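Same chain as my last thread, 72 residues:
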Amino acid sequence: MNSTNDEIIEYIEYLESDSKALKQLIFKMCWHMRGGISLDEMFQLSASDREIISKLIEEHIEVTNETRLPFF
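reply #2:
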């Protein structure tokens, strides 16, 4: 691999940013699950499983907003 220092630094920054976004998503999903799944369990899920849970959470939020039920 012939990369310049700037390319390597840029790639590392991209990975750090991607990692931070994933952690943020996982923490948010765990908060919405209210103890239904632990942080460790959420990190062990596949990306497709996390995507399914994320969609379920979004649907729940939409239904809650439409019905004006309290959201905790």
